[in-house]
Structure to design on (278 residues):
């Protein structure tokens, strides 16, 4: 199948970026999280992105309000991506192929020793699809938007020509992402190194539970939480659930109304110079 056909359809439906990875480029993912664990005859992964609104990011960055960022860059954008990926998957199935979208923001599992992990990493899929490179923060940086986009992936058995792996350099290793993190979740020295085709990519080790404390839980006042709950030495799910119970009562009820994936932080993304083009 020609990649132009699916790309043209996705762009017309609202995608800002689209890239295609062969399924084998993600064969090093943990067991259970490879494209062929999801569909045994998967041939490729189509990755779609929609950009964040710079205005919503700037408002959060200067401290005026976090709500437009929470809504337009996450909650509403996840809905848009869900609809977009469903349409692209239907486009493929109408042509006789199997296609399944992997949701943009869930489910995420807590799985020892792997930690918090999704069905399929959209970030790794995006890099494998040639859309950009990993920044030190672990966010994917694209030449068009830096870290300011959200991804969704479709696993399919359609034989579509993959895009070349991105060979540019975007991350300047300025470590701004490390500096601005209120909970020191991003290591400045420890790194993860992966190879896709001929290119090696490196990014920082992220303490996902520290990030979760701040970004998902809103448990840090410096990042829009209403009350700081001190971080324990080791954060496990038990201490995390307990901390959620200790939140300010207004925030507790309000967060529930917004949904559990409302982000409170995003500083590593907002302050990354690769996205500051406005
Ligand atoms: S803030 Fe600097 S080091 Fe971090 S991802 Fe962006 S460019 Fe790279
Ligand atoms: S979202 Fe916030 S808490 Fe999480 S890594 Fe980025 S800066 Fe740190």
């Amino acid at each position: 199948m020609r990649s132009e056909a699916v790309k043209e359809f996705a762009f017309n439906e609202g995608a800002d970026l689209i890239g295609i990875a062969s399924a084998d480029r993600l064969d090093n993912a943990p067991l259970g999280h490879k494209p062929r664990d999801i569909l045994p005859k998967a041939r490729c992964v189509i990755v779609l992105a929609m950009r964040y609104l710079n205005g919503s990011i700037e408002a959060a960055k200067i401290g005026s309000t976090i709500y437009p960022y929470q809504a337009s860059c996450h909650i509403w954008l996840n809905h848009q991506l869900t609809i977009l990926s469903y349409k692209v998957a239907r486009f493929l199935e109408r042509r006789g192929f199997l296609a399944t979208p992997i949701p943009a923001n869930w489910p995420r599992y807590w799985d020892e020793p792997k930690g918090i992990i999704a069905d399929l990493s959209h970030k790794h899929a995006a890099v494998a699809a040639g859309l950009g490179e990993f920044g030190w923060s672990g966010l994917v940086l694209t030449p068009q938007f830096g870290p300011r986009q959200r991804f969704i992936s479709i696993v399919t058995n359609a034989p579509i020509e993959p895009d070349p792996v991105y060979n540019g350099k975007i991350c300047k290793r300025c470590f701004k992402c490390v500096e601005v993190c209120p909970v020191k979740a991003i290591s400045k020295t420890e790194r993860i190194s992966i190879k896709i085709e001929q290119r090696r990519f490196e990014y920082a080790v992220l303490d996902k539970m520290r990030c979760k404390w701040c970004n998902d839980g809103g448990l840090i006042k410096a990042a829009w939480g209403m009350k700081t709950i001190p971080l324990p030495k080791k954060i496990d799910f038990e201490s995390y659930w307990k901390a959620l119970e200790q939140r300010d009562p207004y925030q507790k009820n309000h967060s529930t109304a917004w949904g559990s994936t409302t982000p409170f932080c995003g500083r590593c993304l907002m302050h990354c110079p690769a996205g500051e083009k406005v």
The mean pLDDT is 93. The radius of gyration is 19 Å. Residues 135-137, 171-177, 272-274 surround iron/sulfur cluster (ligand 1) (CB under 6 Å).
